[in-house]
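Entry for the shared binder. Reason: the reviewer on the internal report wants the predicted structure included alongside the sequence.
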Amino acid sequence: MKILPGWIYRYFLLTLLLLSSHTVVRAEAPMVKEQVPGFYRIMLGQFEITALNDGLNAIDANILHNATEARIKELLDRQFVPTPKMPTSVNAFLINTGSKLVLIDTGAAKSGNPAVGHLLKNLKASGYTPQQIDIILITHMHGDHIGGLTDSAGASVFPHAVVWTAKAESDYWLSTEIAEKSPADAQPRFKMARDIAGAYLASDRWKTFDDGFEPVPGIKAVISPGHTPGHTVYEITSNGQTLLAIGDAIHSAAVQFTLPTVSIDFDKDQTQAIATRLELFKNISARNALAAGAHLPFPGIGRIHADGEDTYTWVPIIYSPL
């Protein structure tokens, strides 16, 4: 057998060591531990719709009512939703009509919960800035929908935007008389609403509307009370395509599509909220319109399929490039 020169053996051994070392280095690369920015786009006719994620909240399953605890847990387990704390998205939606930038809701911001308050970061990642927003439409004045309107110093975050909300909603939350008659634990919510609205009232950029108001062509306000006195759904239409931004008409996709008569503690008038939800689901499914929910799993856009009498299935949109 022919014996190879020593340098060949040494070269072969060095090559093996280098390959082994390279493999180890690659295996020990640090984990990035960062998600992609929370925005997603679709086209609705000529309108560009951008879903913006503000974060992921957690709410207790035991605040759902009108079904047994066992039935609610069964529905949550069926979709692998953790309990007792249910992870719940907080979403907002930006509509570029071609001439106006319209933002529906602004996220939580000052809640003190680091899991939410990321709307501005995701708005910028999506290619837009707060300075570009022309109109802000509020579905209702709970903190996870108006909290992003002002910064930690109480100043307006959207310097050029006019904020619109239903008159019934504004009258309720800005009333000191109603606030004084409310339970003590509700007082901070009224104060927050007054403080936030004040930053825009000072520059005459806080406006109210009644049912059917159209801030821009193709967007119509539909007062849908129950969750709050002036809770509003926004119907967006372009080139025959329709999307309804339904705000807090639903909080738990795993439970309330199958059982839309299940209510939640957050609803001020639970009976009215149920009636509103049933009517919305029926209307949206019959029209085969898109729906966008503030607390549906991000991006929160999809269709509602009617399975039978007052029972539905949520069908999320499929990811696709524009």
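Summary line for the report: The mean pLDDT is 93.
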